Each structure stands twice: as C-alpha cells, then as structure tokens.
User: What shape does this take?
Amino acid sequence: MREANFYHAAPDGVLQCDLCRHYCRIRPGSSGICRARRNVGGKLFTLAYGKAVAQTADPVEKKPLCHFMPGSITWSLGAPGCNFRCANCQNWQISQMIPDDSIPLNKPEEIVQNAQLAGCQSITCTYTEPTIFAEYALETMMLSRQAGLKNIWVSNGYLSKICLDAIRPWLDAINVDLKSMDDAFYRRMCGARLDPVLDSLRQIHRSGIHLEITTLVIPGHADDPAMLQRLASFIVRDLGAETPWHLTPFWPEISWKMQETPPTSPEMIEKAWEIGRKAGLSYIYAGKAHSDTLCPRCGARLVARNTTPFSDNQIERFDADGRCPACHAPSPIHH
Assistant: This one.
C-alpha cells in the first residue's frame, strides 16, 4: 500500500477522498466506493498503486480516438477498481476487483519501458477508471512525457476538479463516456449522477485537452431518440460541434449483469448517427459505415479506416499537410 495524495481530514476526523465526485467520507478500516482507497490508522492509502492487472498494445482508434494520432499504437494499462458499478460493464472482472497483494507490482518505469519496447507512441490509462489510481497514473504520465510519449485517459468523467488540475499538465487526450442525458440512468445503472459528468466535460473542454466522447447505445436503456438528441445537442452547445462522438453497440454476452438485454441493432446505431448529424455534430463515428474522417466542408476523405478488425490498424491519411486535399480547409486531426 502507498499513502494517497488526494484527501484531507474533515473536522470530525473522518478522511475525505478528493479524487472523484463521490467525495467519499472514509472512516478507519473502511474503503471508498471504488474499494481501492482505504483509511488505515488515520491515513488514506491507495491500494491500486502499481497494480497494473491489464497491459497490452492497442491501435489508438480502439480507445476510441479518431482525431488524435490516427494509425498510432498506444500502450494500454488498467488497475483494479472503479468508482462506478455499471451493470453493462464489459471489463467487470477487473473493474469490480478489490486490489490485493496477489497482484504483482509494476512500477511506472516498467510501464514506460513496456511501451517503448512495443514501439508505442503513447500510454493510455484505460479498462478501469484512471481517476481511482491517479497517483500511479500521474507518475507514469510524467515519465512517459520525459520519454517523448503522449498520455491518454479513457474515463467515465467523474473526476474532481482537484484531480483534473493535477493531470492537466500531463494529459494530451481523453475519451469520456457520456452514457446518457438522464440522471435516473446514472443512478440506476452506475451508482452515480449525471451533472458531475457534464460539469467535468465542460472543464475538460476549457482545459484544452483533446476530447472525444463515447456513448454506448443500450437497447431499452440508452437508445431513446429524445435522450440522444439532448446528448448530441449538449456536445454541440457546450463542447463544440467538432468534438468527435463515438456510437458503440452493446453486446450482452460480455456485460456484467445484462445478459438478458438484446444487442444493439445496426439500425439503431444508424438512427443515432442521424440524430447527431441533425443536431449539428461534424464528426460522428458509428461502425464500419461511418469510420472514416470526412471534411465537414466538402465531404472529402481525410482519414480512411479499415475497421474489421481494428487490430489490423489499416489507416490511410490524406491530410498530410494538415489540410483537406480537396478544399484545403484545416484538418481536425492532432498529429
């Protein structure tokens, strides 16, 4: 165990964790909602430090990021625990795991070395929520930057402003799951609230960190057209029409608790794509039919992607000079 950095003692002596929007008040011998931070003897300890339970090299498009270093390879890692309890989680085996000493220690230096040996251009904290292992993530990010690598997070957006301020100097790009525009969905499905996610998204947008949004379209839970219209309109209004929106299908067989829910139909994904276009979004990624990056001004192809499978990493770029090859409008792609 390692003492945590993001906490303070409340006037009544209870420790308050300051990492995420739950702001857990943790009494001696107890853990926070994420189960990865524990009050031991009046100090808060992070149980997830160095506990990288998953590591692999991935195409950056798999995060998914389509406007940040397309075609590059990123080193993905995750530590056990999460501050959400999403019934649809597809990484539940590790997100709901309680960190313990059976997991071998992987120092930040080793993570960076692994990334370099794999020929990666970046390191991504993903699989579980990076916020809950922020101390580990931060040390890795600092070493990664020194090594000339970029830093990426895949997050549920429930991080506190304190956490965001700490990672801002080191974070290059983030994909945030905006699961729904209904607070009832977040309370029922995730054990969280909607407004803190929206507030974090606005702060991330203002910070200048490259931001992309993902929405898992779950039949009967997160596929209502009116809700999707509100969600797309929020992105346009508060984050900008050029913010990429990724629409992904739900697969019940890999979910934590939703095996009886039907999978998302291609027709529903297409309908959600149409809703986003009508709302004014410039870049919507939805399966093979909508995987390429097109110039919003003239429709010319800026990036072509072979999405079956992503692991082939077949990417072709046509915006080498940073502009559309047809109308010469600026490309939205971050090199």
Observations:
- The mean pLDDT is 95.
- The CA atoms of residues 294 and 301 lie 5 Å apart.
